[in-house]
Amino acid sequence: MDAGGSGLSAARGLNDVGAAQIADLLEVALTRQTAALEAVMEAKLEAKLEAKLAALETRIGSRLAALEDKVGAAALAAPSAPMTDAPLDLSMLPESLRAFEILGDAAEIRDASATVDAVGLERTILLAPRDAAAVEALGTFATALAEAYDATIAARLAERGLFDRCFRAIKAGAEAFDDVYGAVWKMILDAESATKAAYVADVAAVVARSRAAAGAKPRQATAEIASLYRDAAVARPVFNRVVADVVAALPCVAELSIPDALKRSQRVVEKAALKRDGKGDVSSVLDVVRAMIVVKKLDHARLALLGLAARDDALEIVRVKERFFDAPSRGGWRDLMVNVRVSVDGVAHVCEIQIVHEMLLTARKGLPGHGVYARVRNATELLESKLGADVAGDALSLAFLHEATGGGHAVGVEGASELYDTLRLIGILTGAATKYSSATRAGSRTRAPARRVARGVTADPVTGA
Predict the structure, then answer these.
(1) What confidence score (pLDDT) does residue 293 get?
(2) Could you tell me if residue 345 is left (phi over 0), alpha (psi between -120 and 50 degrees) or otherwise beta?
(3) Which of 273, 48, 228 is nearest to 125 (CA)?
(4) CA dist list (Å): 435 to 395, 402, 432
(5) Which long-range contacts (CB under 8 A, 24 or more apart) does 155-160 make?
(6) 3-state SS record for the chain
(7) Of 127, 143, 318, 346, whose CA–CA distance to 225 is shortest?
């Protein structure tokens, strides 16, 4: 019994040890299983979180890109115009601007432009320049719209008092901007006068080279609007790429802005319809494809121009308008405007690049906007269409002289702050009289323009209204 009891006790002891070991093993296994399960669950959770974060980042990135596109498009809606496209509150404008209706707002023009989705056609051509149906449809639309413009313009040019209304609009527009731009330009000159000589010399050299290559007035290869847009769409990718390369390679900070669309075809039709000679010919429209380079200094504008000139393998400079020093707008806007010809796939198309000073552009953003510019532009174009560009320019200068001298009395005393300005304007007056006399002798009118000029222009020099 004792021996058997001892054996049983020993067996029980072994069993107890085995159970403990098994329990330990089970605990270890359970711990490992739990750890493995936790690791799997943690990995799955991390994967889900990462996926959600990635999706969120994508959505945020898309929203930011869309906002950036909107901001970029808003900033460049009219990169060749010396005003912004900010919404215009007409109630804040002088009466002469409020009362001046731009051609595009005329009922006949609105009705004609509403018949076709011209913007959609322009987008189609931009994406597929060889889409013959879209090109043909744009041409058909432009022809019908041109007829509406011709009738509207003819009626406007026949109105009594046209010159006075146009002059008042132009004068009010200039006054809206001249003081601001003038003050900013003075600040620029004060800070950057040391670089003016180098700027003037290098710009003059590029101007001379461009005139030798293309003459004073470059033209598009086509006079017809549909093929103009087809050629623009073909040339645009090369233009965008090369201009971007030039800006990226500049040894200074510069910002490039490129619109995401071609110039509105309605405006091209309007420009062609307003021409005094060659009505309907769009070969002089050189900004269907365009870009803006914003620089911080005048010397950087010089570097940008030289950078463009160095890429004559892809961009042939055919015209440079120096508008910082030589020919600022009547409202005081200044820039450097460059036209380049892009040749690709059998197409030769002229594009436009505005090189602008950041300080002037900042000032522009705080001014009344594109609505003012559109009115001043239309007023000027109507006078040029009626009188010719040279005579219209001289007549406007004469009208400004008349205003500045208090109705023509005491020239050089009343309203004329500097003798030099007075003498210069009197010289313009004489030129206007001579040119206007020649223009009227060539036609059927027999009025005595010299006497009208001597009295000062407050009425239309053609209709007498």
Answers:
(1) 98
(2) left
(3) 228
(4) 10, 18, 5
(5) 156/103, 156/382, 157/382, 157/385, 157/386, 159/465, 160/460, 160/463, 160/465
(6) CHHHHHHHHHHHHHHHHHHHHHHHHHHHHHHHHHHHHHHHHHHHHHHHHHHHHHHHHHHHHHHHHHHHHHHHHHHCCCCCCCCCCCCCCHHHCCHHHHCCCCHHHCHHHHHHHCCCCHHHHHHHHHHCCCCHHHHHHHHHHHHHHHHHHHHHHHHHHCCCCHHHHHHHHHHHHHHHHHHHHHHHHHHHHHHHHHHHHHHHHHHHHHHHHHHHHHCCCCCCCCCCHHHHHHHHHHHHHHHHHHHHHHHHHCCCCEEEECCCCCCCHHHHHHHHHCCCCCCCCCCCCCCCCEEEEEECCHHHHHHHHHHHHCCCCCCEEEEEEECCCCCCCCCCCCCEEEEEEEEECCEEEEEEEEEEEHHHHHHHHCCCCHHHHHHHHHHHHHHHHHHCHHHHHHHHHHHHHHHHCCCCCCCCCCCCCCHHHHHHHHHHHHHHHHHHHHHHHHCCCCCCHHHHHHHCCCCCCCCCC
(7) 143
Report d(CA 214, CA 444) in Å as an integer.
37
Other Cβ atoms less than 10 A from the Cβ of 386: the count is 23
d(CA 311, CA 353): 14
Q: What does the pLDDT look like over 197-238, one tens digit per residue? A: 999 999 999 998 887 766 668 999 999 999 999 999 999 999
Q: Is the pLDDT of residue 134 over 60?
A: yes
Cα 333 from Cα 464, distance rounded (Å) = 32
Task: Round the average pLDDT of the chain to a whole number and report it.
Answer: 79
Residues 6+ apart with CB under 8 A from 21: none
Cβ atoms of residues 343 and 54 within 8 Å: no
Nearest to 456 by CA among 413, 412, 415, 396: 396
pLDDT mean over 7-11 = 51
Q: Is residue 343 scored above 90 in pLDDT?
A: yes
Task: Please say whether the beta carbons of 255 and 243 come within 8 A.
Answer: no
Q: How far is CA 146 from CA 142, 152, 288, 388, in A?
A: 6, 10, 18, 20
